[in-house]
Amino acid sequence: MLLVTWGSTGDVAPYVGLGVRLRAAGQEVVVATSERHAPRFHLHDLPVRVLPLARQEESALAADRFDRWQSPSRIRRRTRNAQDIAQVIARGVLDAVGRGGEVVGQGSDAVGQGFDVVLAHPLAHPLCSVIAEGTGLRCVGLYTATPGMLLPRLSASPVLSPHGHRLAETLARAAMSPLYAPALAWIRRELGIRRREAGTRGDVQRGQRVLHGYTSALLPKDFPLADGHTCVGYWWPARDPGWRPDERLVDFLASGPAPVYFGFGSVSPGDAERLSATIQDVVRRVGVRAVVQAGWQGLDVSDDDVLTIGECPHDWLFPRMTALVHHAGPGTAGAGLKAGVPAVPVPLSLDQPFWARRMTALGLSPASLSARRLTARELSDALHTTLRDEQYRLRCTEISKIIGREDGAAAVLSSLLES
Questions:
Q1: Which domains does the chain have, with CATH numbers?
Q2: What span, in angstroms and rounded, lies between the C-alpha atoms of 276 and 293?
Q3: CA distance 171 to 151
Q4: How many C-beta atoms lie closer than 10 Å to residue 50's C-beta?
Q5: Where is 413: in which H helix or E strand?
Q6: Do 311 and 332 form a contact (C-beta atoms < 8 A)?
Q7: Locate the Erythromycin biosynthesis protein CIII-like C-terminal domain: which residues (predicted)?
Q8: Neighbour count for residue 86 (Cβ, 10 Å)
């Protein structure tokens, strides 16, 4: 199996856990990902074919990506960068699987062998889909989000669903198609595939299976997954084999009541100094202790009742919290619900507003707050309600039981062996 994944740390972490589970079940797994993420897979002895994306990732993670005002020149730069990313992924995957079954190219420390199936992250699936068609391989999409979730006002609307989600999918794919077009044209030329409308737009080839790695219990009623798409439950990140909790964190947790977690993952809801000050203000207003995860933006809160930490497995940390404040990325939201801990979602972009809306719609949280307009007063009010109203903890406990009965990684393996 060639497992192709790329994106933020939160995007990639579940695929580390999935790769570990597939290998433990006796499958031969090779990963294609960027230099930035390769060490995560190496820690678990999973071979990696490196996709040279360092320059493009640096550009994508530049601080100005979070500016609300988008000039035409900035949009053009982002478009070109996304097109470059698609081209690098296309070349790397095609080199890995070969043309007609023969492996070509030299991929990092990966074994020199052919592949039976390509497992594709949603960002890579449009490319892998056409490559698989041209090389005679199977291709299965492994999604933690769908394009339609990028337009939450349509896809999660209780008034428009299920038609809203279908419209959101169509609009999102149309907006993304220019990002894939040059790479898809190159793939068709390399493999001699006749140009077709689907291959031009970046749509996934018909008949290819797509497995969604989250619980269907969070989706709106009658949520219309496309034909061939199945929601199988989360696949969880794997802990680093040598990980141990920081002694400072262990001591802090033992020194008083369970704290509130604050963390915003790989995205930045604004100036780190301002956001750190907002968190400090909220902690004092509500009268709680807190654990703050520094994240990519480098949050740093100094207070007697606050501890700022680096990376820490959520499956270990979240059950020790009394409440969570996070960006509502699918993995973080899922980990919090698996732990049965209520949260205040503070989404910024991408699919985060979709999951935040679902948390409030299901009564798992009292409010979803915009990261761009976050104030200490409104976050304090929402957190106070979360902590004082037992209904949110009870609803999270109910969802936790549903999630605990699901095994997304086992479902992926079963699906692959059946087909």
A1: 2-208 (3.40.50.2000), 247-404 (3.40.50.2000)
A2: 11
A3: 9
A4: 19
A5: helix 408-418
A6: no
A7: 304-399
A8: 25
Largest CA distance in the chain: 66
Residue 335 structure tokens: 């980990």
288, exposed or middle or buried, with CB in 10 Å at 0-12, 13-18, 19+? buried
Main-chain phi, psi angles of 408, to 5 degrees: -60, -40
In this structure, what token pair is assigned to residue 393?
Answer: 């903890």
Other beta carbons less than 10 A from residue 12's beta carbon: 23
**Residue 376: which residues within 8 A CB-CB, separation 6 or more?**
278, 281, 282, 285
| Prediction pTM value | 0.89
Q: Peptide bond preceding 224: is omega within 30 degrees of 0, i.e. cis? A: no
CA distances from 267 to 16, 18, 30, 75, 371 (A): 20, 23, 28, 19, 10
User: Mean pLDDT per segment of 10 residues, for the chain of length 419 residues?
Assistant: 92 95 96 95 96 85 51 81 94 85 40 78 94 92 87 72 77 89 94 64 64 94 84 94 94 97 77 90 97 88 92 96 96 96 93 93 95 94 97 97 96 90
Question: Which residue's entry shows tokens 């690098």?
Answer: 88
List alpha helices for 203-271, DSSP H. Answer: 247-254
Decide if 347 contacts 366 (C-beta within 8 A). Answer: no
Sign of the CA dihedral running 308, 313, 314, 317: negative
- Collapsing DSSP states into helix, strand and coil, what is residue 34? strand
Contact assessment for residue 96 and residue 132, using Cβ atoms and an 8 Å cutoff: no
Nearest CA among 320, 304, 309, 325 for reference residue 380: 325
Contact 243, 43 (CB under 8 A): no
Taking CA 107 as the corner, what is the angle to CA 40 and CA 50, rounded to the nearest 5 degrees?
35
Q: Give yes or no for a contact between 342 and 323, defined as CB atoms under 8 angstroms apart.
A: yes
Give CA–CA dist 9/6, Å, rounded.
9
Positive or negative, the Cα torsion across 188, 191, 193, 199?
A: negative
Structure tokens at 43: 């820690």
Q: Dump the DSSP string for 159-222.
A: TTTTHHHHHHHHHHHHHHHHHHHHHHHHHHHHHTPPP-HHHHHTPPPTT--EEE-S-GGGSPTT
